[in-house]
Design a protein that fits this description.
The protein is built from no helices and eleven strands. The protein is mainly beta and about 110 residues long. The chain has two domains: about 40 residues; about 70 residues, SH3 type barrels. The two termini are about 25 Å apart.
């Protein structure tokens, strides 16, 4: 499993652990960083068309037009559009390596 989280407004990667004092830390090859637990994002096992890893909370474009955010829903990672359709609902896309997905940011970057 891979994770990322913000530490002093910078992404750090590794394994998040909550200490007995209640602090959250990210461990990665002997490096330790204090992290904001609200920004912990799990790697979903897919890379985008530019070979960037895709994490929960990432904002992506699908075929260079539709914007969507990666979410955990119904026991699977999915892409949920960032805008409502004409019926006031958000489109839910299944993740597939055939969707031409490109990561353009993360919801915690905003």
């Amino acid at each position: 499993m891979k994770f990322k989280a913000l530490s002093n407004d910078k992404w750090v990667y590794g394994m998040p652990v909550k200490s007995i004092l209640g602090n959250w830390k990210m461990y990665n090859d002997g490096n330790i960083s204090f992290i904001d637990p609200d920004t912990i994002c799990q790697y979903i096992g897919f890379n985008d068309i530019d070979c960037n890893e895709i994490y929960e909370g990432d904002i992506c474009t699908i075929k260079n037009s539709t914007k969507a955010v990666v979410e955990w829903k119904d026991y699977a990672f999915r892409l949920l559009s960032t805008t409502d359709d004409v019926n006031g609902r958000r489109t839910d896309f299944c993740l597939s390596r055939f969707n031409q997905i490109r990561v353009i940011g993360n919801m915690h970057d905003l």
